[in-house]
Design goal:
globular; RVT-Znf
């Protein structure tokens, strides 16, 4: 889906009768948009293999609507520091949070190795969009890997938020967590429950997911 297109499409139309923002309305509009668009290039940004909440999250990411520190600061919210919550080395922009942060980078390398894919140079949302367009336009395994990418991005954001709201010693523990196993578990659970074509047993899924 083209972020600009959806940004215009839902503007002013995601509020309930009382005027409050409604996730339900946004979900309906996104589903209507997805089903009415025939452009394959736009369609690859929606995956039927993951929950709707993940697709909405991806839409927000592509629209740079997630509340990273840099994004919020541009809206006038003042922080004592704009540094990344996990590595504390660079400003927390969307590109840094999901790709160039050392924690995210390590997770992505594990994803590439798991799927036996030569590590692409991805350091931005735009670069990921190009990769997803390529993979999403392919058949079967391309769509499955697209779903895995979506789950990975969602896991990174949840990881970031768990650190943000942690206190004391829990902050360090959260930072040291390895979310790779969670990506494998949730992606297998969601994909298998949404497609009868994906019936890979757990052993093959964690070792060679593309194995017939």
């Amino acid at each position: 889906m083209d972020p600009g297109y959806l940004g215009n499409f839902v503007s002013g139309r995601v509020r309930d009768k009382k005027g409050y923002f409604s996730v339900k309305h946004l979900t309906r509009l996104l589903m209507e948009s997805h089903s009415s668009r025939e452009d394959a290039e736009d369609g690859v940004f929606w995956s039927n293999l993951v929950p709707k909440k993940i697709n909405i999250f991806i839409w927000r990411l592509l629209n740079r609507a997630l509340p990273t520190r840099l994004t919020l600061s541009k809206r006038g919210i003042v922080f004592h520091s704009l540094d990344c919550i996990r590595c504390e080395q660079e400003v927390e922009s969307p590109d840094h949070c999901f790709f160039s942060c050392s924690s995210s980078n390590i997770l992505w390398k594990k994803i590439w190795a798991w799927w036996d894919i030569k590590s692409p140079c991805i350091s931005s949302v735009s670069a990921l969009k190009r990769l997803i367009q390529h993979l999403g336009s392919q058949h079967h395994w391309g769509h499955i890997f697209l779903a895995v990418c979506f789950v990975t991005l969602w896991s990174i954001w949840n990881w970031r938020n768990s650190i943000l709201f942690a206190e004391g010693e829990d902050i360090i523990k959260r930072k040291l967590e390895d979310h790779f196993a969670k990506v494998q578990t949730f992606s297998k659970l969601w994909i298998s429950s949404r497609s009868h074509k994906v019936q890979v047993n757990w052993s093959n899924w964690v070792s060679s997911p593309r194995k017939p």
